[in-house]
Amino acid sequence: MAKKVSGAEAFIECLYKENVEVIFGIPGGSLLPIHDELYDSSIRHILVRHEQCAAHMADGYARATGRTGVCMATSGPGATNLVTGIANAYMDSVPMVAFTGQVPTSMIGNDAFQEADITGITLPITKINYLIKDANDLPRTIKEAFYIASTGRPGPVLVDIPKDVQTAEIEFEYPKTFELRGYKPTIEGHPLQIKRAIKAIMDAERPIVYAGGGVIISNASEELRALAELALAPVTTTLLGKGAFPESHPLSLGMVGMHGTKYANYAMTETDLIIAVGARFDDRVTGKLDAFAPNAKVIHIDIDPAEISKSVSVSIPIVGDAKSVLKELIKGLIGASRTEWLKKIEEWKKEFPLRYDRSGKTLKPQFIIEQIHEVCPDAIITTEVGQCQMWAAQYFKYTKPRSFISSGGLGTMGYGFPAAIGAKVGCPDKTVIDIAGDGSFQMTCQELATAVLNDIPVTVAILNNGFLGMVRQWQELFYDKRYAATYLGTSPDFTKLAEAYGALGIEVVKPSEVKSAIEEAVTSDKPAVIDFKIDPEENVLPMVPAGAAINEIIDYEG
User: Fold this and answer.
1) Do the Cβ atoms of 339 and 349 come closer than 8 Å?
2) Residue 432 shares a structural domain with residue 285
């Protein structure tokens, strides 16, 4: 006979069954029964300073480890504060389960204190969400939540648990199996489509592999490399695909799109076949759609059928898991010869490398990223959003999956620091560095308290230019340098801020100080903040203006 437990006890037992090790969150009145049970459990609860950061930490944990991240917040404002983090995870296909407390079921709909319709609010930004009204439904619901979050195209699931559900008694039994009608992700690619794709690859003269975050999610990096080497097809990635293919490889083109390499954009424009794997042809990649890859057939491999032909017309669609489909493609391919195509790409690489002023007269952000790579080539890099994000994407050479963690689709400022904390919790033996801007870091810098008090030694490298840098860059290039509402000034003193929280604070103003500062920070036994005072008007280049074709590029001319 099943044992009788409270809903809160059942909740903890469910988390044990799902092998949950850590929850990021903040308690509140509607969650007191669960937090009282957590007190005696072996599950680590990390108390954050803002619920948005709990979601970002769960997100960073999930991306770094491949496991489902878990966050929790109380009803009302606690739940609504999770929304940005949930939306971020939804846009970037991150497996996450968010638990929220709710007012008692008898009070729902009465505008009770700290009541919010969080299932209604999050309906468009979750794979599914649940409001549990009967405590007997709790085990099955939690099992479904973790299954849905982590399978198919991963994403966040929210479970809303009223306070009386947490206190009600039930006979606990965790379901071993269950059937979800209508939810059956396609894993295996269609054999006929795979045959068509193999023929198209062998017939192409100028193929290019376009790899996205789906390659990393499906752990398909080895298969991607094998495909590229067999087909002799150069590989370009999306922002979230960085690390899916080693950027030290001769076939690597780096990132494509608005701030991609010139040679990746030229190759994408000249190709006759795009082999898209786990990428969604977003607007930052394609630029002007009617000028994108005008001579190319498109093979599109994606587990989500809704992404096929959503923005770019696809010649050979293959719905399925990237790893499974790539394995089948590899079986059918034989070695190819692409002498002229590879020669052309090598010429582009020599003619159009990434460039910046290396005179050393001012502290350049690109130089800082290169120095971080030199000191910590195997670090997990998280980023904030804006110029710091793009410099981190361009100048750190990623060779392994799950080593670059950034907010892609939603572009969430303040994401990188809490994501770094989550990544470090999931990978405690790894060096984790958040490459930040002074604007983004100030959105979530209160989590220094979380990092210090929980002994989570991450490093924050602030590329401090005193501006909301990417917006300032657009104002410089397209709005006659009318810097409206983008100057941040010189406050705060980040080294003193770090020290106030009990972290290490370092200020750097000269290129000669960069390497030693990085070495000091990453070997510290506590969180560290390095305030790099960079050239305030340095721009991220190359750049494709909004609405332009991706081969219409503004570049450095120094």
Assistant:
1) no
2) no
Q: Which of 9, 18, 37, 51 is catalytic?
A: 51
Q: Which position among 3, 4, 113, 347 bears the catalytic label?
A: 113
Catalytic residue check, 327: no
Catalytic (active site) residue 470:
yes
Q: Which domain holds residue 90?
A: 4-171
Q: Which residues contact 511 (CB under 8 A, 6 or more apart)?
A: 360, 363, 364, 367
196-240: pLDDT as tens digits: 999 999 999 999 999 999 999 999 999 999 999 999 999 999 999
pLDDT tens-digit readout, 138-194: 999 999 999 999 999 999 999 999 999 999 999 999 998 888 989 999 999 999 999
Strands 297-302, 128-131: pairing kind: unpaired
- What is the domain count for the chain? 3
Per residue in 480-492, pLDDT tens?
A: 999 999 999 999 9
Q: What is the DSSP letter of 115?
A: -
Q: Give CA–CA dist 267/347, Å, rounded.
A: 11
Q: What is the CATH number of the domain that holds 33?
A: 3.40.50.970
Task: Specify the CATH number for the domain of residue 303.
Answer: 3.40.50.1220
> Among the options 114, 188, 288, 526, which is catalytic?
114
Distance CA 8, CA 32 (A): 9
Q: Do 202 and 155 belong together in one domain?
A: no
Summary mean pLDDT of the chain: 97
| 447 has catalytic annotation | no
Q: Tell me whether residue 163 is one of the annotated catalytic residues.
A: yes
pLDDT at residue 1 tops 70? no
For residue 417, give the nearest of 378, 446, 455 by alpha carbon. Answer: 446
Residues 157 and 231 in one domain: no
